[in-house]
Amino acid sequence: MLVLNADQSNKFFVFIKGLAEPLALFFPGLFHTGSADFDIILDYGLAAIFWLIVSGFVARVGGGGGGRGGRPGPPAPTLK
After folding, report:
1. Per the domain annotation, does 53 fall within a domain?
2. Do residues 51 and 25 make contact, with C-beta atoms less than 8 angstroms apart?
3. Within a domain: residue 51?
4. For the chain, what is the domain count?
5. What angle do CA 23, 41, 39 make, to 5 degrees?
6. String of b and e for 10-24 (b: at least 16 CB within 10 Å)?
7. Residue 46 covered by a domain
8. Residue 24 forms part of a structural domain
9. Where does residue 68 fall: left (phi above 0), alpha (psi -120 to 50 degrees), or beta otherwise?
10. What are the tens digits of pLDDT across the range 18-77?
């Protein structure tokens, strides 16, 4: 939203920024390319990729909810 010059006093902007900053961890400010817009894309993009990898790992270790590739669930009860 900063790259698109969004109004920083807007409540939606403040809400999204409040969600994004803690999730970005140590990535903001990691790179200084000389372009503020590219720095934002690079820093927050790397944070997004990091969380995709972490969530994929957690889903794989946790079984992924028994879906495709996960552990099978208990057998369905039979009606008699």
Report:
1. yes
2. no
3. yes
4. 1
5. 100
6. eeeeeeeeeeeeeeb
7. yes
8. no
9. beta
10. 877 777 777 777 778 888 788 878 888 888 898 899 888 888 887 655 555 556 667 878
